[in-house]
């Protein structure tokens, strides 16, 4: 059976990843490409407890290493219950966040932990996306969007001034992995962003 593929959409909160993941899924479907759209943390069959734990406020006060273990556990469940079966069936899996989010959010200011996150990923997950789209937006735009969306009650606040560093880490990962990563300017009309992402996906699929 033909193997599918894995596309991750990454970026800081408020970058518009979810919207673009949905749009890409619809465009691929129109083109006859069988796909599913999913997300982290908490994606996969029965993954809700991971979502409750990892996307809310519960993590505050836990160390970055503990967080990295929890996000990786959730990813393993996502992989086993949804991503791998879909790929085995020849589908393109589009995920809103994957391992680069752990590399950035948990590993960004600790080189030793960053190395361990890579080792843990190799050991317990073992696949990198075929294509990673990093949607890049200025921090001010991200903050405005997230405030509008949630009234300010978000994990984003806890990153404070580190948001610019998180943004730069995503760009650095993209630059270090040009074979799989493309950076897309997210500070413009969503139709243009979607069109550029579709070009990248079509390059992968051709
Ligand atoms: P979301 O806003 O895309 O739903 O993601 C929820 C939060 O989880 C977001 O602030 C980023 C964070 N996160 C990590 O810190 N590490 C990870 O590995 C993942 C997947 C998400």
Describe the fold and architecture.
The chain is α/β, with parallel strands linked by helices. The protein has nine helices and five strands, in the order E-H-E-H-H-E-H-H-E-H-H-H-E-H. The chain has a five-stranded parallel beta sheet with strand order 2-3-1-4-5, with helices on both faces.
Describe how the helices and strands are arranged.
Blueprint: E1 5-10, H1 17-30, E2 35-39, H2 48-54, H3 64-88, E3 92-96, H4 99-105, H5 111-124, E4 131-136, H6 139-150, H7 156-159, H8 163-176, E5 181-185, H9 190-205
Parallel strand pairs: 1-3, 1-4, 2-3, 4-5
The structure holds thymidine-5'-phosphate (TMP).
Thymidine-5'-phosphate is lined by residues 13, 40-41, 55, 71, 97, 101-102, 105-106, 155.
Can you tag this structure with a few keywords?
single chain; 206 residues; alpha/beta; 5-stranded parallel sheet; 9 helices; 55% helix; 13% strand; globular; binds thymidine-5'-phosphate
